[in-house]
Design brief:
The structure is a single chain. The protein has about 375 residues and is an alpha/beta fold. The protein folds into two domains: about 1-135, Glycosidases (TIM Barrel); about 150-330, Class I glutamine amidotransferase (GATase) domain (Rossmann fold, 3-Layer(aba) Sandwich). About 25% of the residues lie in helices and about 25% in strands. The chain is built from nine helices and 19 strands. The strands form five sheets. A seven-stranded mixed β-sheet has the order 5-4-6-7-13-12-11. A hairpin with a 5-residue loop joins strand 9 (about 270) and strand 10. Helix 4 packs parallel to helix 5 and helix 7 (about 170-185) packs across helix 9. The radius of gyration is 21 Å and the shape is globular. The mean pLDDT is about 95.
């Protein structure tokens, strides 16, 4: 649909989304309840930049407590400014706050605005004014090409919804886990559509959980020399939602067969040699490809053949982080071991740093206060 639009936009409600749609532990929610998940907004910034083919806006930015989540805390002081700058760092042309004045009537009386119901400026008004002052000496933000690419496919999302095979497991969560691992390693990420032909523009492309690989992408994958990391359930169904002849994964140039799959209870984890574990969903692989990661039981956890790699299950955070780091090292892409809550994004001219924690973070000779934003010239 984005191909027919001038711009794409989305509504950013970091605190509400942490409460009602981010898959997270209670400890994670408690730590970030006034800041929002460090990666959820960034993922959607990158996603809608892809949908808008480089042009996108924040149509509604949360300015204070909302009224529709299970719990509706106030943002940590400074977070409205941080959310605004983070959107700009990911290429937003505009950030629009919703709403201007808190309504004194009807169903959204408890939804904060830039002004209180009596028209007195609320906290977000002053943070937006600070961003305006910041912009006075800021260069024009132009997105640089990402270090790595990640394919996101809405049809795979719908296919997973039809057949998740495990309670609580979703295509979005798998892709988001890979994205979170990338961000924790200091990488800037470009999201690609499933009809992209730009695979050769990146040293490594991650394409997890593409249940059906459309013909155009299948041709691009078969032709590229770029390293492509697939799995799990990639190429598991054809265009009519049937198991392909010869069994999955139906991926050109990959000699592998998924003999059977299983879903795992939340209390079960299958350890991978060297670190990480398979959780929730696992595939048993028959292959003549090279096994590069094994479970502690000796089964394949990740295989490779030529420029292709395939992860044989849903990994935990440590597992995906390990895979992303290994693939970047192989491709000569520098990574960082960022502390929890610290995130970075590179543009054509600057590197941005964001502290999503409620306390100071010291890193690489700088100290970011809670909700702190630092801009430095790109080196």
């Amino acid at each position: 649909m984005g191909n027919d639009l001038d711009i794409a936009s989305w509504d950013s409600y970091p605190l509400g989304f942490l409460e009602d749609r981010v898959s997270a532990t209670e400890d994670h929610r408690a730590l970030f309840y006034r800041q929002g998940d460090p990666d959820f907004q960034a993922f959607h910034h990158d996603l809608y930049r892809a949908v808008g083919r480089g042009r996108w806006w924040i149509m509604e930015q949360q300015p204070g407590p909302v009224n529709w989540a299970p719990y509706n805390p106030a943002p940590l002081p400074g977070m409205v400014r941080l959310w605004t700058w983070e959107a700009f760092a990911h290429g937003a042309e505009a950030v629009c706050y919703f709403r201007w004045r808190q309504a004194p009537m009807a169903q959204e009386q408890m939804h904060a605005g830039m002004l209180r119901p009596d028209s007195v400026p609320a906290a977000a008004y002053h943070e937006a004014a600070q961003v305006m002052a910041d912009l006075a000496d800021a260069p024009h933000v132009s997105c640089a090409k990402g270090d790595v690419a990640l394919i996101f496919d809405y049809q795979s999302q719908w296919a997973w919804e039809i057949q998740p095979h495990c309670q609580g497991l979703s295509y979005f969560d798998i892709v988001f886990d890979v994205y979170r691992a990338m961000r924790s390693l200091g990488l800037s990420v470009d999201i690609l559509s499933p009809d992209t032909e730009a695979l050769d523009d990146y040293p490594v492309v991650f394409a997890p959980a593409l249940m059906h690989i459309p013909p155009k992408l299948e041709q691009a994958l078969a032709a590229t020399q770029t390293r492509v990391v697939h799995g799990p359930r990639s190429g598991a169904r054809d265009g009519n939602f049937n198991i392909p002849s010869g069994l999955p994964p139906k991926i050109a140039n990959l000699d592998a067969t998924v003999s059977y799959v299983e879903s795992l209870r939340p209390s079960v984890a299958i350890a991978v040699e060297g670190g990480g574990a398979i959780r929730s969903f696992r595939e048993h692989i028959e292959t003549r490809a090279t096994v590069i990661l094994k479970t502690t039981h000796g089964d394949a956890a990740m295989i490779e053949q030529g420029n292709l790699a395939y992860v044989c299950g849903m990994l935990d955070d440590a597992g995906w982080r390990r895979v992303v780091q290994d693939e970047c090292s192989r491709a000569g892409i520098a990574t960082m071991d960022l502390p929890m809550g610290l995130r970075t994004r590179v543009t054509e001219t600057e590197r941005f740093w964001f502290n999503h924690l409620p306390h100071d973070i010291s890193w690489d000779g700088m100290t970011l206060p809670p909700a702190g934003v630092i801009r430095r010239a790109k080196q």
